[in-house]
Amino acid sequence: MEFKLNISNTVINTLLTVVFFFVLLTFQIAEANIHHHTFTIKSKAYTRLCNTKKILTVNGEFPGPTLKAYRGDKLVVNVINNANYNITLHWHGARQVRNPWSDGPEYVTQCPIRPGESYVYRIDLAVEEGTIWWHAHSQWARATVHGAFIIYPKLGSSYPFPKPYREIPLILGEWWKKKNIMDIPTNANKTGGEPAISDAFTINGQPGFLYSCSKPDTFTMTVVHGRQYLLRIINAVMDEELFFAIANHTLTVVAKDGLYLKHFESDYLMITPGQSMDVLLHANQLSGRYFVAARAYSSAFGAGFDKTTTTAILQYEVVSLNQSQPVLPNLPPYNRTEATTRFTNQIRSYRFGDRPVNVPVKIDTRLLYAISVNLMNCTDDKPCNGPFGKRFSSSVNNISFVNPSIDILRAYYRRIGGVFQEDFPRNPPTEFNYTGENLPFPTRFGTKVVVLDFNTSVELVLQGTNVLASDNHPIHLHGYSFYVVGSGFGNFDSRKDPLRYNLVDPPEETTVGVPRNGWAAVRFIANNPGVWLLHCHIERHATWGMNTVFIVKDGPTTSSRMVKPPPDLPSC
Ligand SMILES: *[C@@H]1O[C@H](CO)[C@@H](O)[C@H](O)[C@H]1NC(C)=O
Ligand SMILES: *[C@@H]1O[C@H](CO)[C@@H](O)[C@H](O)[C@H]1NC(C)=O
Ligand SMILES: *[C@@H]1O[C@H](CO)[C@@H](O)[C@H](O)[C@H]1NC(C)=O
Ligand SMILES: *[C@@H]1O[C@H](CO)[C@@H](O)[C@H](O)[C@H]1NC(C)=O
Ligand SMILES: *[C@@H]1O[C@H](CO)[C@@H](O)[C@H](O)[C@H]1NC(C)=O
Ligand SMILES: *[C@@H]1O[C@H](CO)[C@@H](O)[C@H](O)[C@H]1NC(C)=O
Ligand SMILES: *[C@@H]1O[C@H](CO)[C@@H](O)[C@H](O)[C@H]1NC(C)=O
Ligand SMILES: *[C@@H]1O[C@H](CO)[C@@H](O)[C@H](O)[C@H]1NC(C)=O
Ligand SMILES: *[C@@H]1O[C@H](CO)[C@@H](O)[C@H](O)[C@H]1NC(C)=O
Ligand SMILES: [Cu+2]
Known about the structure:
Immunoglobulin-like, secreted, 3 domains, globular, six-stranded mixed beta sheet, 7 helices, Cu_oxidase_CS, repeat, disordered N terminus, lignin degradation, binds 2-acetamido-2-deoxy-beta-D-glucopyranose, 32 strands, binds copper (II) ion, mainly beta
């Protein structure tokens, strides 16, 4: 079933139209290409850090195959599950307009594809352009089942920056030397403690030069002096936000989450799990070798984390410097929240081409979601290895999300009762000093959603809390992008803070890092009907329950209604 990805071979064009309708053909190339892919999930042995173990892969590759398309194209991906685990795939950053059936999160929009089964995902790209990515959305499979998804401007259009000489995808990942990744959440759930901490981060699959067993295979990018390169950087890490830098080189950030932004320069990036960034690199330094490096930004006091540094090498084609080892960049210290704030505060949306900046001004629905890590008493005789002899949990508005037994989308569409409740609290059920010296408290389990009318304009304030430990939470919304109109530290003040909102050029994103002990206010128009997950992209937090769901009702016209479910939708 092995299938070599080759987009040029798979583009379907109706060549019959060539002779008579040249104009129509141009239209098809630019707007209506369909790319067919087959993704076969299987286990394959990989050696990293001197140890060989089996991991889940797509088509035997790690990281998985890169999807490439032009803006406006359609992709059809047949996913064949030849592994021994359930699987689903998510197209992270693709809006899936009216088609939640292809969005991917298990038990939210579909039942898992079971071993031996297959499912066809359809992705219609409309507004997306730049770098997004795809990953598994089933248990912890995404640790190795992920890859880049590159969307070029339509043929005939150009980037809003000088055409780079070359493009280089850099996928940041996380590696456990001996543990079977698929056992990590199960084992953590047995003890109630932290999931196992990883042994390394990776760049394009390799921990890098600082590990003797990775040194010879370190990802190396060779550049020509004077040229400009486009780095397509994706944080596919499970549990840590990362600082990223290239020694002696200033980076120009031009896009984030598949959305262009106003260019800005920085010596480093802070990129959360779930985010992708397009960055220009000017090869304008002395012709030598430089480290590309990333390590954790971890702000939760007392939380264990992987303290290692992953590297790749930037090497000039003709090396004139005599260096014993490449130069290491200065990365901010692990807990330097100011460095995170300084970086993210520079992001501004960019009015470009047919992409206006349309920040909703009149708000119909205001939501305040407090997000926290919680501790539960033990309910059975299993040992509780979390802090204070309790079990970890996490919540949004004090509800810790529980996967239902069939997906919420099917239950909603087919009106099957008893699967979810529509009473998710629109404000924290108990008001407290969210960022104060709180004692950790327990939470409630539930499968609750907020139902929104079609076209509702929503303001959602994500309020970080200091319950147990405050952390920067990368919150990702499926089916939408949103404008981050404000953010700050401490408790959101509904009287004062809106006065300082940026309604002119706020960042437009699909994953926002909610500041540690702070808040972020996002706005969007609920004009994509479906069932859409909102969750923390730090995997351990999502596993503990930091998820919730929006159901957006159908609009009044055929073109504002959800499409029908596909015939091959897996059942539970
Ligand atoms: C975790 O363990 C508890 C019992 O200790 C069980 O009720 C629950 O279903 C488990 N959750 C998962 C996701 O395995
Ligand atoms: C890199 O930058 C450091 C610090 O600014 C400087 O000391 C060093 O000479 C530079 N190295 C190269 C090869 O440019
Ligand atoms: C490079 O530097 C090393 C150590 O400083 C020296 O031994 C070696 O001769 C140098 N090589 C060249 C080609 O200059
Ligand atoms: C960051 O870590 C350093 C070194 O461990 C510590 O001294 C400092 O208090 C920490 N800062 C914060 C804000 O937690
Ligand atoms: C949790 O355990 C503590 C100490 O064992 C006890 O005081 C408390 O009442 C328990 N809470 C619940 C909700 O059972
Ligand atoms: C919340 O707690 C923090 C930390 O103790 C304190 O500085 C702040 O004043 C408190 N805010 C309110 C509104 O009580
Ligand atoms: C959250 O829910 C738990 C369980 O019902 C309750 O004990 C706790 O007080 C609630 N906390 C808040 C802040 O609402
Ligand atoms: C949605 O709202 C926009 C702006 O108010 C309006 O122009 C549009 O017609 C609405 N769409 C539908 C289908 O109601
Ligand atoms: C795989 O999915 C099926 C269908 O939902 C479910 O019954 C089964 O428990 C799942 N298996 C695992 C290991 O989660
Ligand atoms: Cu989180």
